[in-house]
């Protein structure tokens, strides 16, 4: 897209209310133009399943409900070199393949206990994949609207500071 | 912004202020309030208060990467991406590396803002007075040159700016860290209160206090009057504060300057040169390059305040050559560009606090604790000169903990939704000595897109700083362990000049024009109508955060300049 078209599109999206500098700033932001691998809908769905094992639904919704896989796909695509992306998605494919070998089913088709077993196995089979998947799932989840406001306590404008007060029973971690 | 008016009269003001950051804002406020018509030139783009703080009110899920840099950003900003101030949310606040070209004979991290307000938007807001121990240090140690001023010369100006800015902090009556005009101090976390008691008990002469910070713990008349509100404890200061709760040009100095009706602000204006009249022996104005149209333009004034950040201002001075000043404006001494200083940091210790699990906190305090300098003071004598202070603080760990553990599932999630243990850390900020050979200079061949020769850095930390760093790391560990913290780990992540963003000293003041660039009033030796009031004037670095001193010295110089104009000495 040419810069002019991009600016016009941004102006439309933002209702044309932004000041010129803000608009220029918004358009000056760099989106990833570097090499990246294409992620299929199947891979994204698989990521959501694995993420949901790492942070499952309990009394509050889990990673899949929070859409953590979207964050994972976006960060892997834009913030990591292509070699890391390939390694990451190879780890994901290996997890799926191992599920078939062990249980004769895709990872998505496994029951909860089997999914847990496969993710546990990944901790030793492919530790780098597990650690990155865990890190991105955790960050994606707790910075999502569901994670921040339901699993944690979200207070965007505290308006006060008290550094030493009694912990209330059932107090959740601050999201920020 | 007067872009269409070409007549010399309309390009003429009483004063030109180069830069709109911490000192440019103060210079413009003081000069306009004293009746001068001021043109404030800023190389960066406009950033309107509140309206343009794009990320300030966004929720975490409205960011794309939760602050991470993309590969493209890392590639296009190889230097800026070295450290945290440049991130997803502040992308448009800093200059692109591709525009901010500079060279490194030795590594130097140069953070150049690209906005009206300059670094006053992203600064750390820690605000401390220098003391007579600092102003007398070079004389006592017999290095570099003596400061031409002492604490008593600046003290009333510290008070003057503090009453307007609003500095939150605690009175201590320490000789090495004079008290400011304080707003109420912010509170400490439980762990900090306990560590403070134990440090002060176990290490006589050492003190721990809450950070002195330019955030409004309470808004007084002076602050409410310019539309500022008290701190909301969001800890998102560096994105720009919609409440105007911390000092920035936009929140604090621009409103009163604009109110006079005598201020013209021209963003996108890269000052390339100060114009010198060989006959009148004074500056007549400046030449700029319009950053957008790439057209040069001249502006004229009776006085020029150079407030473009220490290194930015020095580059302009070095590039302003005339028959009278063939080596750079006011550079009879040959010191211009030399004596480059910063603070050195990124070393200290942290540990786990096992108590207070039944305690929590509310609010995100955009401030830490401070341990004032105690080394080489009184009877303490080390194998290096000067000293350091500690910044740091306690916190109760949250959901980010245990990411690196081999765990997952319902138990992992449940654990993270409950507060974790308390931690406490101390990180040293050390004084760097003024070495003549630590310098910046202009490249003879290469220029940037605005026609400015590229700045080259040739400066490094030396033995004195390296010896000090050993104490900075070990003392932190010792104090935390003596305070009862567990699993205390010390670190030295290495520090390069520029990283602390306290760069200073490249146009130092002094009594003798043969060894200094400015006199005791920040006036260029030999050119009465040019003043440099940003960090370039510093003669020694102290170990405290310097911005408050720049503010005080700017207000002082503006007062002197206008009095001299009235006396017709300028």
Descriptive account of the structure:
- The complex is a heterodimer of chains A (176) and B (570).
- By secondary structure, chain A is an all-alpha fold.
- Chain A has 2 domains: 1-30, no CATH class; 41-151, no CATH class.
- Chain A is built from 9 helices and 1 strand.
- Chain A has helices at 3-13, 20-28, 41-54, 63-66, 68-79, 82-103, 112-125, 127-142, 145-151, and one strand at residues 162-166.
- Chain A is globular, with a radius of gyration of 20 Å.
- The two termini of chain A are 37 Å apart.
- The relative contact order of chain A is 0.12.
- The model of chain A is unreliable at 1-33 (pLDDT under 50).
- Chain B is α/β, with parallel strands linked by helices and 570 residues long.
- Chain B has 2 domains: 1-149 and 262-340 and 436-458 and 503-570, FAD/NAD(P)-binding domain (3-Layer(bba) Sandwich), CATH 3.50.50; 167-246 and 344-430 and 462-495, no CATH class.
- In chain B, the strands form 4 sheets. In chain B, strands 1, 2, 7, 8, 9, 10 and 19 form a 7-stranded mixed beta sheet that branches. In chain B, strands 6-13-14-15-11-18 form a 6-stranded antiparallel beta sheet, covered by helices on one side. A 3-stranded mixed beta sheet of chain B has the order 3-17-16, covered by helices on one side.
- Chains A and B meet through α2, α5, α7, α8 and α9 of A and α2, α6, β12 and α10 of B.
- β1 of chain A pairs antiparallel with β12 (359-362) of chain B.
- Chain A: InterPro entries: Gluconate_2DH_su3 (IPR027056).
- Chain A: This is Gluconate 2-dehydrogenase subunit 3 family protein.
- Chain A: Keywords: Signal.
């Amino acid at each position: 897209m040419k810069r002019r078209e991009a600016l016009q599109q941004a102006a439309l999206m933002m209702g044309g209310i932004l000041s010129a500098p803000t608009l220029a700033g918004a358009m000056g932001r760099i989106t990833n133009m570097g090499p990246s691998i294409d992620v299929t809908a199947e891979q994204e769905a698989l990521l959501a399943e694995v993420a949901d094992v790492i942070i499952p639904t309990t009394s509050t919704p889990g990673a899949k409900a929070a859409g953590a896989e979207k964050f994972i796909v976006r960060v892997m695509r834009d913030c990591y070199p292509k070699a890391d992306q390939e390694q990451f998605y190879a780890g994901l494919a290996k997890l799926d393949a191992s599920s078939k070998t062990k249980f004769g089913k895709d990872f998505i088709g496994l029951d909860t206990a089997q999914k847990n077993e496969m993710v546990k196995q990944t901790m030793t089979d492919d530790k780098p994949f597990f650690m990155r998947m865990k890190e991105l799932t955790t960050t994606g989840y707790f910075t999502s609207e569901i994670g921040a406001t339901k699993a944690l306590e979200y207070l965007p404008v505290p308006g006060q500071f008290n550094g030493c007060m009694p912990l209330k029973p059932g107090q959740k971690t601050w999201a920020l | 912004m007067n872009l269409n008016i070409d007549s010399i009269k309309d390009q003429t003001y009483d004063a030109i202020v180069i830069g709109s950051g911490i000192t440019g804002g103060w210079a413009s406020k003081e000069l306009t309030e004293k009746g001068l018509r001021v043109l404030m030139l800023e190389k960066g783009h406009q950033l309107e208060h509140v309206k343009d703080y794009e990320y300030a009110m966004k929720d975490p899920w409205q960011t794309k990467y939760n602050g991470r840099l993309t590969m493209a950003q890392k590639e296009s900003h190889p230097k800026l991406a070295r450290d945290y101030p440049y991130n997803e949310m502040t992308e448009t606040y800093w200059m692109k590396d591709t525009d901010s070209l500079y060279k490194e004979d030795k590594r130097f991290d140069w953070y150049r803002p690209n906005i009206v307000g300059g670094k006053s938007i992203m600064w750390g807001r820690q605000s401390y007075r220098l003391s007579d121990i600092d102003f007398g240090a070079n004389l006592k140690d017999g290095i570099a040159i003596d400061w031409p001023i002492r604490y008593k010369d600046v003290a009333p100006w510290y008070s003057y700016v503090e009453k307007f800015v609003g500095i939150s902090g605690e009175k201590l009556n320490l000789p090495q860290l004079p008290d400011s005009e304080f707003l109420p101090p912010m509170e400490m976390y439980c762990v900090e209160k306990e560590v403070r008691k134990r440090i002060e008990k176990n290490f006589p002469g050492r003190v721990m206090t809450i950070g002195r910070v330019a955030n409004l713990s309470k808004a007084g008349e002076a602050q409410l009057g310019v539309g500022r509100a008290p701190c909301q404890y969001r800890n998102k200061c560096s994105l720009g504060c919609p409440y105007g709760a911390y000092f920035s040009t936009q929140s604090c100095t621009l409103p009163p300057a604009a109110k006079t009706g005598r201020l013209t602000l021209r963003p996108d204006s890269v000052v390339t040169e100060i114009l010198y009249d060989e006959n009148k022996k004074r500056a007549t104005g400046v030449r700029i390059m319009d950053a957008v149209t790439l057209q040069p333009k001249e502006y004229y004034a009776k006085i020029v305040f150079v407030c473009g950040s220490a290194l930015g201002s020095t580059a302009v001075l070095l590039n302003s050559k005339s028959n009278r000043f063939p080596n750079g404006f006011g550079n009879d001494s040959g010191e211009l560009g030399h004596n480059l200083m910063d603070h050195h940091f990124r070393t200290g210790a942290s540990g786990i606090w096992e108590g207070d699990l039944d305690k929590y906190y509310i609010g995100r305090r955009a401030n830490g604790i401070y341990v004032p300098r105690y080394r080489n003071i009184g009877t303490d004598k080390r194998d290096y000169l000067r000293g350091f202070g500690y910044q740091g603080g306690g916190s109760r760990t949250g959901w980010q903990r245990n990411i690196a553990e081999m765990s997952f599932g319902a138990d992992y999630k449940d654990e993270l939704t409950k507060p974790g243990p308390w931690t406490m850390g101390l990180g040293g900020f050390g004084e760097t000595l003024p070495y003549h050979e630590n310098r910046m200079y202009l490249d003879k061949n290469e220029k940037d897109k605005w026609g400015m020769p590229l700045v080259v850095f040739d400066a490094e930390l030396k033995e004195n700083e390296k010896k000090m760093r050993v104490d900075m790391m070990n003392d932190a560990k010792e104090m935390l362990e003596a305070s009862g913290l567990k699993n205390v780990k010390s670190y030295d992540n290495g520090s390069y000049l520029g990283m602390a963003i306290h760069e200073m000293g490249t146009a130092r003041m002094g009594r003798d024009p043969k060894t200094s660039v400015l006199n005791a009033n920040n006036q260029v030796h030999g050119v009465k109508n040019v003043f440099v009031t940003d960090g370039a004037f510093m003669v020694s670095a102290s170990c405290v955060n310097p911005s408050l001193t720049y503010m005080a010295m700017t207000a002082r110089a503006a007062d002197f300049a206008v009095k001299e104009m009235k006396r017709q000495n300028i």
